[in-house]
Amino acid sequence: MSSKLTLDNIYKASYVLKNVVRKTGVIYAPKLKPDTELYLKTENLQVTGSFKVRGAYYKMSQLTDEEKAKGVIACSAGNHAQGVALAAQKNGIKATICLPDGAPISKIEATKSYGAEICLVNGVYDDAYKKALELRDEKGYTFIHPFNDPDVIAGQGTIALELYEQIPDLDAVIVPIGGGGLISGVAFAIKQLNPNVKVYGVQAAGAPSMKNSLADGKIETLSSVKTIADGIAVKEPGDLTYDICSKYVDEVVTVTDDEISAAILALMEQHKLVAEGAGAVPVAAVMFDKIDLKGKKAVCVVSGGNIDVTILSRVIARGLLMSGRSCHFNIELVDKPGQLLKVSKIISECGGNVTAVYHEHAPEGSDVNGCYLTVTLETRNFEHIHTIKKALTDAGLKLF
Prior knowledge:
Elements lengths: L6 H11 L8 E3 L8 E6 L9 H10 L3 H6 L1 E4 L3 H13 L3 E6 L4 H9 L3 E5 L3 H15 L2 E2 L6 H17 L5 E5 L4 H13 L4 E7 L4 H8 L22 H10 L2 E5 L1 H15 L5 H11 L9 E6 L6 H14 L3 E9 L4 H11 L3 E9 L8 E9 L3 H13 L3 E2 L1
Parallel strand pairs: 2-10, 3-4, 3-6, 4-5, 7-8, 7-10, 8-9
Antiparallel strand pairs: 1-2, 11-13, 11-14, 12-13
């Protein structure tokens, strides 16, 4: 293992990877943030659906013949697993991957499809990590760390070399943070090439391990993590990634699951891009003004697209609510003919589209003639919701 991360190493990684990974495209995204010249680095379209293959492949290319013969082991919430599995397959190395048992089935199956052996572990990423270390010691495998390794970080840093070519006059780059491998590589490389470029990190509000650690000046471990962005649900950053981030990252911000959902929806609708939660956090940070980028030329690294399709409909529903594209009204009515017609007429005149209606009589203790109506609507934006709400109250209807 190289003892130190250098720009030479990152250029070497770029050479090793040139026939293995895609040089992913950069897409102009004017609608996501109209006052910013915003671009998207589409690592969600990378082979295996995520940037992780860069670091995994470069790390494995640097192993000795003896290490390659013994095989490798890794642990992952999904994307690193697929990167290691593909890299091992291409290098003819046996790979064992420890995954938390809650990892999406789609990611488990994808990892298996690259020929890796899977070991499911009860708990979260950190539990899978402990198991992987046990197996490493027992079987003599080489452990491929998902983020805390100079060769892995060098592989991820190749994204910065591509960005430097693709957008030479860049002002800022916004990068997701889980354990910190991606942002460490990108920040280190970009600051060597142009120290004036700002590097912003984004974590899920339910897993702010790097943000807390940097704020308190020491590595901290979260007691638990909870976010739809499973790819960045890491309890503790690495010592190497912490050191690099403290030197080269300008600021770390957080976004909520609702904001992440809205970003996933916006990427789908506006750019026909499928991003997983971890991949959408930079876009969420920009959309919801977590970083001041007015008048700047900025790029969001959309780090992966391996979203579990079984949660996609729930994410879209939350995204619609979060962006004012859907809403619920609870209306108190008198139980007499024409009431439903009155409500639907007002909504229709305001241009709202009713997608669901639930009508029930008032419970005991309420007005004997009372009833409640819950209406779900498709709307244009929050202003549209306000217009409909005002029209209903102006007509004497009581909303609660």
